[in-house]
Amino acid sequence: MKKTVALSISSVLALSLILSACGSSKDSTTDTNASTASNEPAKKEVSFSIGYATGDPATKQAMADAVAAFTKANPNIKINDLSEGGSMAYLDWLKTKEAVGEFPDLVEMRDTQLFAEAGKIAEAPQAWLDLLADAPTFNDKHYTAPIVGTFPQGIIYSKKAYENAGVTAEPKTYDEFLAIQEKLKASGITPLTFGGKDIFHWGFWINKFFMDDMFADDPNWNSKRTKGEVSFTDAAPLQAMTDFTDLFTKGYIEKGWASTADNQTASMLVTGKAAQLFSGPWMFAQITQADPSFDYGWYPVPDRKGRIVVNGANSLQGWAISTAANQDADKQAAITEFVKFFFSKEQYTKFLQAVNGIPTTKETITYEASPQMARVLEVMNDPNTIKTLMINSFWGEDQMPTQWRNWFYKLAQEWLTKGSFSSDYMKKADAEWDANVKANAAAK
User: Fold this and answer.
1) CB 115 within 8 A of CB 322
2) Residue 267, SS3?
């Protein structure tokens, strides 16, 4: 028996995602671009480079599989995959590649405004945009083809650990969430694992509290900070970072967070070394791969007002073509063929299922979803869910100075290592923001 559930994400993506609750599907790779006629002339050989973030193993593998499937179907097109692992922030990696003359021809772009203003990426070809339900613009221009819809973060938890601690329901308020942490701690298990070795992982919890206390109520907070109208020493940002700090100082976060990599957190969870992980649905595949029998759930953490605030608004992130590659007709054509292949129904379905992704195409995508992913989509469909963005994902006047993000993440590590937090650190955050704004203005 099969049951199909249709879920609308219109407020986020203006499209539908249909989920099959049970049963299975079997995909096969179709060489969509291969010649069907033996007498066709040989296609011109073309090569281009590609770069994408590799912090999540499931997404990294899904990207590599897409590249492999495309080159098998298009033997005349060679793709040089420049993507690398490691703990270096993706933005820093891209800057390094640009500095040594190896900026990818096709690039997963996250700091779109930065590279668009620097002239490093070109407007997205119309053939890309024709595939998409909604591609956001910067200065009335399209630069990216969103790879997936914006992912929300939430608590991935061990049902066994919750049962052992006497936790019987998801929290309805932030105080109830803290009460759960106390119960877990009292049961003898570390409540939360945290991939503090990887700089990007810091953005999950820090932004959870920034979104709760700042952006849910004021999406223009960043531009006001740039104008000097608000400060990190204001009550809302101070509350945000106080709550963040309490997770560590009250013993809810594992003590070895500084040496734990993001890709180790799934293992920490399934082996019972920690009861929970705060992350997104891309982790579901890692958890299942680590232990197919592991029983777990997912839920969003409510804020202090009892609201559900998630990272879920549309963003500028996605595939982008470099300015240099766009000026090469052969490269542009080959890259466009790859993008069309990537978003083709068969290939895109495989990718989405591998990463538990939310589609961005005009064409409806159907794939088998886990109960945890169904819960994610339930939250995203709830009209009461407040969807906003992380501090670094806004653009235009609301863009954060790009240098500030990782600097602040390191500042947070500093005060946690010292075991204290005060408004003095937030004064430093203001000063660094202003200095970065000034430096960026002078560089234009």
Assistant:
1) no
2) helix
Query: pLDDT at position 444, please?
Result: 73
In sign, the C-alpha dihedral spanning 354, 356, 362, 366 is: positive
Number of H helices, E strands in the chain: 17, 13
Measured distance CA(138)–CA(316) in Å, rounded: 8
Q: How far apart are CA 259 and CA 324, in angstroms?
A: 39
263 lies in the same domain as 126: no
- Domains identified in the chain, total number: 2
The candidate with the shortest Cα–Cα distance to 63, out of 338, 332, 366, 372, is 338
Contacts of 183 (CB under 8 A, 6+ apart): 165, 166, 167
- 197 in the same domain as 110: no
3-state secondary structure of 112: helix
* Side-chain half-sphere exposure of 26, counting CA atoms within 13 A: 0
From CA 128, how far away is CA 355, in angstroms rounded?
Answer: 21
Q: What is the CATH number of the domain that holds 244?
A: 3.40.190.10
Q: Which residue is it, tokens 């083709």? A: 344
Q: Identity (one letter) of the amino acid at 360? A: T
Let me know whether 140 and 167 are in one domain: no
Residues of the chain with pLDDT under 50: 1-37
Q: Assess contact for 289 and 158: CB atoms under 8 A.
A: no
For 362: left if phi > 0, alpha if psi spans -120 to 50, otherwise beta; the answer is: alpha
pLDDT given at position 38: 52
The secondary element (H helix, E strand) that includes residue 321 is: strand 318-321
Residue 162 and residue 300 share a domain: yes
User: CA 203 to CA 177: how far, in whole Å?
Assistant: 20
Residue 33 lies in a domain: no
Q: How many Cα atoms occupy the beta-carbon half-sphere of 48 within 13 Å? A: 30
Same domain for 321 and 296, yes or no, is no
3-state secondary structure (DSSP) of residue 91: helix
264 and 410 housed in the same domain: yes
At 49, which helix (H) or strand (E)? strand 46-51
* Tokens matching residue 5: 């559930």
Nearest to 67 by CA among 285, 350, 282: 350
| Element holding 176 (H helix, E strand) | helix 174-186
Contacts (Cβ under 8 Å, ≥6 apart) of 414: 425
State the DSSP string of 331-397: HHHHHHHHHHHHTSHHHHHHHHHHHTPPP-BSS-EEEE--HHHHHHHHHHH-TT-EEE--TTS--GG
